[in-house]
Structures are given as structure tokens and as C-alpha cells.
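Dig into these lines:

——
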Amino acid sequence: MKLDAVHVLGNHDRYLLDRPPEKMGSWDRPAHAQLDAAQLDWLRALPMTRVFREQVFLCHATPNDDEIYWLDTVHPDGTVALSSLDRIEQFAQGITQSLILCAHTHLARAVRLRDGRLIVNPGSAGSPGYRDVHPFPHVVEAGTPHARYAIFELTGGNWQVTFRHVAYDHETMAALARRNSQPELANALATGWIS
């Protein structure tokens, strides 16, 4: 909020708004307790999608759903794998920007579409692993506790991406997760693995 940075609404942001605290999950209830009315109003005003400087399309997961993985697919056996190019391109239909940013899986990944557009998930700065049940039970693990982000450069009309994995005081965050009775999150923060 203080930076007035460009934001889009993510699924956990929405959970803080669309249900009472007693119906929130274990990740969201402690976060909600720390937010005041002005901060919740700020979240309410965030769009699901946004275009930045007419060149970059942003969304949390896919353009129309904040819980569907775009670049990855969960198989019935719980395996998480790179989605097919056809599936990825289906979600990109109607988007004219040459750079598309998404997130949600917390896994750093880039996919170049056949028409040259680039779709990037920069990773996560604070949750390198989690367990989910949609669309099938699965685990996502980054394998290291590092914060992840991406740097973009437009060169000769094409976007180039550089991924950064940066060490930070993840042990302090793991200790906070333990204090909040989140042992799986604590382990993910400490190691990049759920167990």
C-alpha cells in the first residue's frame, strides 16, 4: 500500500474478504486478525486482472479464475507438471500484451507461446511449499527456502526474463509459522519442502 505498487487480487486476498474469520483457513485467519478496515478496503479495490503500461497483462492464476493453475497441471495421482502448450495458449486467448504475468503455484516458470508472447510465474517470496486439494490432492515444493522473483527486459521487441533466488532470513519466518501452529508451512519456509 505504501509503495502504491501495481497489484492484482489473489485467492488468499479474496478469502480475507469473502468469508467470516471462523470460515477462513488456517493461513488466512491469522492474517485477517492483523488487518484493519482501511487495509481490507484496499484489498476490496484490487482488480482480478490488470494491464501495466499497455504491455504487461497481470493476473493471479488465470485471467478468469484465481485458483486454476495456468502453467502447471495437477494430475489425478497428485503429480504437478508443466501444462501442455495448447492448454496454456487457451487461457491466453484474447490477451494482446506481449508479456503475461501469473502466479498461484509459487513455482518459477516461463513459457514462450507460439506467437512470441511470454508467460511468466516469478515464484514466491514467502511460501516455497504448500499442500492443496484442488483439483486433486497434491503438494507443491520449490526445493529451497529462497525468495523468488523475476526481472524482465524488453530487448529487440522480445521480453527476456531472469529469475532470482535470494536467501533471506527464512528461519525467522519459519519460527513465526510454528508460533501460529503451522508446522507444514514452517517446514516449507525452513527448507523449501513440506516434509
